Amino acid sequence: MSNVSTHIHTVHLWGALRPLVGGKESVTSSARTIRELFRFLAENYPGVEAHIRRGVAVSIDGRIYRDQWDTELPAGAEIYLMPRIPGG
Amino acid sequence: MPLDTSLVRKPFKVIGTRVRRPDGIDKVTGRAKYGADAFAPGQLVGLVLRSPHAHARIKKIDTSKAEKLPGVKAVVTAADLPDLTAGDRGLRDTLENCMARTKALYDGHAVAAVAAVDMHTAKQALKLIKVDYQVLPHVTDPDEALKPNAPLLHDDIFTEGIEPKPVKPSNFIKIAEYGHGDVEAGFKEADVIIEKSYKTEQTHQGYIEPHACLASVSPDGTAELWVTTQGPFVYRNTCAALLGMDINKLRVTSSEIGGGFGGKTHVWAEPVALALSRKANRPVKVVMTRDEVFRATGPTSSASMDIKIGARKDGTVTAAFAELRYQNGAFPFTWAEFGAMTAWACYDFKNVKSVSKDVVVNRPKCAAYRAPSAPIAAFAVESTMDQVAQAIGMDPIEFRIKNAAKEGTKSSYGPVYGPIGIGPTLEAAKNHPHMKAPLGPNQGRGMACGFWFNFGGQTCVDVNVTPDGSVTVAVGTVDVGGSRASLALAVAEELGVPYDQVRVIVADTSSLGHNDMTDGSRGTFSSSMAAVDATRKAVQTLRERAAKIWEIPVDEVEWMDGHAHAVGEKHGNKAPLSVKEISAQAANTGGPIAGHSEIVADGAGVSFATHICDAEVDPETGRTTIKRYTVIQDAGKAMHPSYVEGQYQGGAAQGIGWALNEEYVYGKDGRLQNPGFLDYRIPVCSDLPMIDTQILEIPNPNHPYGVRGVGETSIVPPLGAIANAISNAAGVRLNHIPMSPPRVLKALKAKKK
What we know:
The complex is a heterodimer of chains A (88) and B (753). Chain A is of the alpha+beta class. Chain A contains 2 helices and 5 strands; from the N terminus they run ββααβββ. The radius of gyration of chain A is 12 Å and the shape is globular. Chain B has 753 residues and is of the alpha+beta class. In chain B, 29% of the residues lie in helices and 24% in strands. The A-B interface holds A 12, 14-16, 19, 54, 59, 61-68, 71, 78, 80, 82-83, 85-88 and B 90, 160-161, 163, 174, 176-178, 205, 261-263, 265, 334, 337-338, 341, 367-372, 411, 413-418, 453-458, 517, 519-522, 600, 602-606, 702, 712.
């Protein structure tokens, strides 16, 4: 079994999510996929789930993912949550 | 076989060639069928009654006289579209925008609709509907709407992002913040600080084809909708939800589309057409007039912005700040927030902050418009960047190169960039002959940069090999900018057959799984990825069938140049089998030969562009003529360069219209004064120079051919580039878009004083 502690991420949050996590700019998580990360946030921070339903995009090392929730969060990756953006 | 999106660096056979457009002949000869070109037996004419008031309570609607008029088959109001949205605020707003419930929130808001046997009867019926309005005070300006005593549109908007949550409702939807560092400390380090305010007026996408649909609801509960749209699957899902239908009962077919640019990603009259058809038990066709398109569909925001940039004399920006106030129309969204995310994205600043304020006003519900929100913010940022460069005596391109974002830069919206293309576009601009060309009297040159997020999304493609070996391809993501040609090229490339042997159609919603809309510059990016995937699966089947024909293991069959080749010493002397030869035996080797792909094309990668513009200002009239225009943008890989150039030119042309003339003009009564192309001036060919393009190809590692979306970024820099060119030509800084002749003349007169 892999060591969970090597998979700790700092998950940066955009402004709208910060009041829901006690005003912090980021939280830490050991999630290995976007799905695990969203589950972790929904279980630990009531109110975030509503944002996830409305649409949250995840930037992993600068590349933005909107839909593929089984996308892996590599160890040490930079993770940002962002609002889901519409296009024209 | 899992989807492999990794970049294949190989010489292409057909990708990158300028093949014939598959839809070209039908479009130029008038055979192509658009939204208004459908016909069904017994169809009725549907018309919508719209509020003449910017803000009014609807006390009563009396439809009895209209219903009694011979030839009228149905009249609908909000009562015929009950609220089934189950607490989904966005869906409820869509419903209320399609048909006003208790209040009309803008001039043009639908309040009732009729279906009648002909246009004359339908028009008569509209006049017979009596609406008892209580006219309310209105507000159309974002700054006015933010004031404490402004007329209140909704009693359930409590500003999001303020702690503690406000107890009083207001028009102020949301405040959001992006950035990093310490801007106050950064400004203290600056040798020069430029602080300016800017305004942009509301513009419409201005697509040539008005919204049109033909709805037919059967008594058995099934329904058909023919419609001009960027997203038939999204229209299907939304309309089904609003009308309380199972999604599979509604089949939506997209027509050819005469432009969308984001305006056809939202439903407007389509749910009303379905409600009319359901009530009348007849097909109903609704075709909007241009007046209706302007008044009652979704233009982009107007905005008011404050920008502050500090820099040292060596050109290093020490701090940058933006406050962006965008109006969203009559319903809440977060258009200003997207402006805040994109505003500074081209640059590598140590201290940067943007604050967005979204606000509702008595105007139509805003919709996406090509890189939505980004051009507005870029105008203000790029105008200020030029003024800082001037203040420190630095060339504007060198100033931007010095501060440009690069791989490893922490973006202003948060994440650190991977490989990006802003630097190469700036270097290309610096070295472009346009930058060195002489300018004439009253002429000025400007340049600007732009950024947009691209995305991918859910996509389906079916590839079918027919019995004669030719190939049909069905895609669910609508072709608005040439994706059918790109898909045919991708399938031909993978299969090794000529381009002409592949025909692509856009399938209806009952033929394929869900596809996202054509937005976010995703059409060619995601559909070509799915087409490559589907074709590779078809090739695998072709190899298996050749193995059966030859009675050899499939491992000993390779695919090359459109043929199966037996390999190895034992079978290598067999003559290759073509697609045609294999498909002719399909019935006896396992049945039809096809490949299917259902994917989420994520990881599209962000996009940058740099534009150069020469403008000439007539000092007597204030009229501006664009003399020369150059677009430089990274395409990753241009699958069909002519279409890519078309996207670059189209974005620039729309940007020129936005910068120079286009503007929603509201009267004091809150009514739109110019809902037509005579008074709302979009550029025509004679207004434009030849728009030069330079395609950069820095491959996207997340696409098999390196493709990036190209549709939207090209509209981001024009407002700033043109504003800088005009200001340089006029010798006075202009800060209000559009820079129409009266505004330019006013600035010239003020300069003389």
